[in-house]
Amino acid sequence: MFPLRDNIPSFKRPFVTYTLIVTNTIIYLFQFLLPSRLEEMFVFKYGFVPIVFLKAIAEHRLTVQDFYPFLTSMFIHGNWTHLISNMWTLWLFGDNIEDRLGHFRFILFYLLSGFFAMFSHFIFYSNSFIPAIGASGAIAGVMGAYVILFPYSRIITFIPVLFVPLFVRIPALIYLAIWFLIQLYNGAVSSILGGRGSGVAWWAHIGGFISGILFLKLLYTRKYRRPVYYE
Fold it and tell me: N or C: which end of the chain has fewer CB within 10 A?
């Protein structure tokens, strides 16, 4: 199930969404060009390693610098597939949320969602030595806001059935509810297995999605309009 586009028009250019996509791409290109050893050091330095943060708390030496990876980690990606899938999803949903929140509130919303997404990951995997990276937690926040503001929009979705490609118009409420339940199921399974599994930060996705809903309520100051179904 792969989303292709929605049917909600944006009335302002999503400059912040453009900037986030370009920034993530440039950082990944820089990372990609590094020798493998330096790339590993780069990921461990700027990715979020839960056990490092836990150790700083346990030793009572927590500083502002220990919080930097909560933010820097959301601009690092593991491979091209990771980058492209995240940026495509941000492109699909981000323009409409930026349109409603405005540019400044949107970047604040995005960073806060990503921060609390990573904190959710820390709560469930505080003893992990594996760096958590990627923009998916922040983007999950964008998806959470989208389901509140545009539940009746349609997501044109590609669904391969054997060798037959199907293009289905799925209501955003249903599409994102299915997505969230998949994250919840995989997060529960991953926790039962002690964090062993696909290497996906499922609880970051879950925490980001919920954070997006909460931060939307805080930052969306315009008079609420009933969701409109655009054909």
Answer: C
